[in-house]
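User: Predict the complex with flavin-adenine dinucleotide.
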Amino acid sequence: MTDSLPATAIDRPTVEHFDAIVVGCGAAGLYSALCLPESLKVAVVTKATVSRSASDWAQGGLAAVTAPDDSLALHVADTLAAGAGLCDRAAVEFLVAEAPACVARLVELGVAFDREDDRLAVTLEAAHSRRRVLHAADATGRAVISALTARVLDRSNVTVLSQTLVIDLWLDAARQRCLGISCLQEGRLRWLSAGATILATGGGGQVFAHTTNPTVSTGDGVAMAYRAGAVLRDVEFVQFHPTALDLPGAPHFLISEAVRGEGAHLVDAQGRRFAFDFHEAGELAPRDTVSRAIYAHLQQHGGDRVWLDLRPIPVDRILHRFPNILKACQQWGVDPLTEPIPVSPAAHYWMGGIATDRANHTSIAQLYAVGETASTGVHGANRLASNSLLECIVFGTQFGAIATANPPAGLPPEQRTDMPSIATVPSPDVAHWRERLPHLVWQAAGICRDAVTLQGAIAQIQAARATLQTLPIQHMMEQLQPGMTWTLDHPEAIAAVQQWVETRNLLDVARPLLESALFRTESRGGHYRTDHPTPNPAWECHTLVQGDRRWISRSGLGERLTPPWV
Ligand SMILES: Cc1cc2nc3c(=O)[nH]c(=O)nc-3n(C[C@H](O)[C@H](O)[C@H](O)COP(=O)(O)OP(=O)(O)OC[C@H]3O[C@@H](n4cnc5c(N)ncnc54)[C@H](O)[C@@H]3O)c2cc1C
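Assistant: Here is the predicted structure with flavin-adenine dinucleotide placed in the model:
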């Protein structure tokens, strides 16, 4: 999809007020923007083009009860089972109950789900007890994003600011309320104020060396909220997708679960279906089980990848259902019609995030979070396949009832300053940590974790954060005041600032993720500790983090977040 948005930086003021700012152009951000009352002046901000997001890359589909042999109770039960004891039941029931109406709304907005006869077509994915996953071939996300983008661009109350990197949240002096954001647009520092700031910044897969996520998924929203003092929940829970393309030089392109749902076999170098050694559902066991089965099988038998064999699926079915997967593999020299695809697990989805309630409130006034960035309680310790696009839509709908704060009495005056050129010279320290950090986190907090490796990684991250503190760019960015502005003319300087912003964010999400993984001394869902390899009923609770504070909570937090949290 091309991005045909107007350039907006040059003729816009440095400080501007909106009623609501939505950060992110994935399914959560776009749908939230459409649900906000049309009477509000809304900005939708994305650091890339509108079409670049994990949502756009979603292949398999969106789960909802639409088939006659299915029921809401079964969808709830499957979601709770996948979540391994940590789902918030009330939030799950809400998600599942709202799903059919949300699907109807998406169809109305122009999302072209596949059909069979006069019904929406449904497929099976792992850990679903019924065929309930709606799809648009193997490019469901693109179908959703194209339709939502067209609708958002039509809305006269919405301004889309693409290629605009949000640097940080703008808080009031007491750090109790979010007043908006600071951002970098075409090299210019800008301040946008709002009665409601909505983080829809997606996941943080880029903190891992192996990930299916796009490059924009650097955990920016979680990092900004964490620095602002918001409460994060269950950030140790990451889902590792078992089947990402594994070829030297190729990206970890996702080979959707739907492929296994349609009958593909997961095999080892000898062609044996080893997944049944680990779970009776074989390759259709929950994702964490299949990922660990691959890890354990390779540990026992050697090698660094396994294969996904699509040949049990009829050729015309593959051509109809998986045209994009076929094309991507063929581009990299593998023809799934005649040979198995080499695959290995990669970080895919972040269950934890900024703690939110049913109406997407965070623990900071006027700050909201929605989509993968948020922790609503619907995924627990492990997400059921195709429940995440659904979560974006169901929780985005909640913004229809938002009560935004009044506009501020006055905006801060513009103060033009010079950016010291030393601050924007690309830093070898930042480049080093941007490269090194994902390997460190993959090793320590990947599929299998243990206390010693986690402690080592935490110490290295502390050292990295201390190094960044000494850099001129960090010093300068920490002095920013609302209204202050400068313009960077050189693409190299803009790239240096962007690299610093993302590296700082990656460090700021790595820290709570690793610390929470160390804190939880059991294995559950996506979190597997080799030194504590079984679930412990005492740990059937959430981990919460706020700055340096860490605690547990047994409550679902399904209702409005009112500190104290426990
Ligand atoms: C390859 C792949 C396949 C998947 N398949 C499925 C599937 O079949 N079904 C399913 O339910 N889920 C699937 N998922 C998961 C699902 O796609 C995501 O969880 C969901 O789309 C997240 O949507 P989101 O709107 O929260 O975030 P995203 O879609 O990731 O959007 C985040 C947005 O925030 C913007 N952003 C981030 N930081 C900043 C910043 N600092 N400043 C400005 N903008 C910023 C980004 O540019 C982007 O526009 C898949 C994920 C991947 C990676």
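Confidence is low (pLDDT under 50) at residues 1-9, 558-566.
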